Amino acid sequence: MNTQITLEINGYKRNVLRYEYGFNRNTDYKGRPTTGVLGGDIYVEMESDEGCEVLDMMLVDIGKPYLCFFFRSEPIPVSGKIRHNIDDMMFREIAFDEAYLYYYEKNMSAEVSFPMVTRFLISPTRLDINRTVKLDRRINTTDGGWWEEYQEEEKASILPKVVLEPPKPIVLVTSVKGKDCALPNEKVKYEVTGYNLSNVNKSDRKRVKWVLLIDGVKEYRKEQGESFELRIKEEWANKEITVMPYLQAETINVSVKTQIRTEAIVVFVNGYWNTGKSNSFAEPLKKMIAENIIGTKNKKDYWESMFINNTYNFLIKKYKQWTNKTILRSGITPLFIDGSNVWNSSGKTRFNAGWDEAEELLKTELLTHNVINDEGLQMKKIFIISHSMGGAHAEGMISAWKYHDLEIEYVLHFSAADNKDFQVNLPHVTYQINLVPDPVLMYKNTDDSAKVLWENFWNMLRRPYLDSSCAYMIEKMLPEHYIEVKNTDALNHAYTKGGTVWNLVPFLKN
């Protein structure tokens, strides 16, 4: 076992042979303590050498002059510690402070058998044993009679010097821009355009917050920054939203009000028009139909202007009746489609052509007219109006758009031709209107035997119209949505693309 005892006192360091310390209390005749803890002096013994450092510490104040005979100079204290290590591990540590050397002895001998030893006593007034037992008997902190538990002196905290800086100006948002009106599913960008300060740092610009006010309820957004992109929800249609950016607190004085409008596209799908390819049926009928019924123009010019205007008014009122929401006349966009094909084409052929055209329109006109956005989400309401051979073409378009999750609000088929070659896709919102008798439908909807022999066809025309009252109804049309009105006029087929039909059919008139 390797043992080492080291003394450090006022910077002087030596190995020690032995040390002692002890405490005691006075007792009365019954053996009970009558005083506090006394003693505590430290006895140190070490080998002598040629130096006298410890003695110098004891005598350092001897040379000081006396103030007078009765007042001697204050002795100079020492401080240090004794560290006792066993196998390089601390076994005991005695730390002393404000201590005094009051006994010194040096034992010298010429005989080798007698070691030369230096002994001295230390009288501490502050003492720590193994850093756990802390004792104090200083005059200024105790009564000085005996040892007491040491109380750590509270060091006055030195407050850092406060450097007063001028107050940082408050940054406020003063202006913002954005769209005045928008459509459902549209992405609208709002952007801060002004602050109350000319120099606004990037961190302030990045922490701009946004809040929406809808129906009196505030919605605080998680997005931050000078610009904010908002997707308009479908349920906000016909409502006004207020968008407010802020740094301290939102205010209606710094805001953008955006009206969410309900707008629509009305798709007019025309039927056959005289392209000069009508030689396949009887000459007298060809001349009458070409000159008086079919016409020679397609798309917008196929329809009478009164028909188009009445269609807009009808759909606006109907939509208001269903939803209690308003579509303004200025919010309606027409789209005119040629759904005719050749005279002898089947309804199935035109249905397939309508599907193909609808797929192309998804990439062109529907994007151009903001019917859908670049993600394919619907922004405007869709209404479909068809006439004659355009009915099958229109149903093909409806099937394609339905496949792409577009919603069709209302469908009106006027005098649909080849009614058994295609089906209605949306029976609950689809209506069919016919004026009878209709020479064109009597020809288009009959079998080939009547078309090949003029006598057979003429006999068919002599009937009021086809035998069944629902002979012209499109497959899967709801019977209550099929509207047939009698009108003894050979031009009934032409009337259903003009203004006359709106006066003849109570469903439309009312």
DSSP helix fraction: 10-25%
Radius of gyration: 55 Å
Count helical runs: 13
Report the uncertain regions: 447-455, 462-467
Summing up helix and strand content along with how strands pair, one would put the structural category as: alpha+beta
Q: What is the averaged pLDDT score?
A: 87
Rounded to the nearest angstrom, the distance between the terminal CA atoms is 118 Å
Layout of helices and strands:
Layout: E1 3-9, E2 12-15, E3 18-24, E4 38-47, H1 53-58, E5 78-86, E6 89-107, E7 117-123, E8 126-129, E9 133-136, E10 148-149, E11 173-177, E12 181-182, E13 187-195, H2 202-206, E14 209-214, E15 217-224, E16 227-231, E17 240-246, E18 256-260, E19 264-270, H3 283-294, H4 305-323, E20 332-338, H5 347-361, H6 365-368, E21 381-387, H7 390-403, E22 408-414, E23 430-436, H8 439-444, H9 448-452, H10 454-462, E24 482-486, H11 492-495, H12 501-504, H13 506-509
Parallel strand pairs: 12-18, 19-20, 19-21, 21-22, 22-23, 23-24
Antiparallel strand pairs: 1-2, 1-5, 3-4, 4-7, 5-6, 6-7, 6-8, 8-9, 9-10, 11-13, 13-16, 14-15, 14-17, 17-18
Helix pairs in contact: 5-7
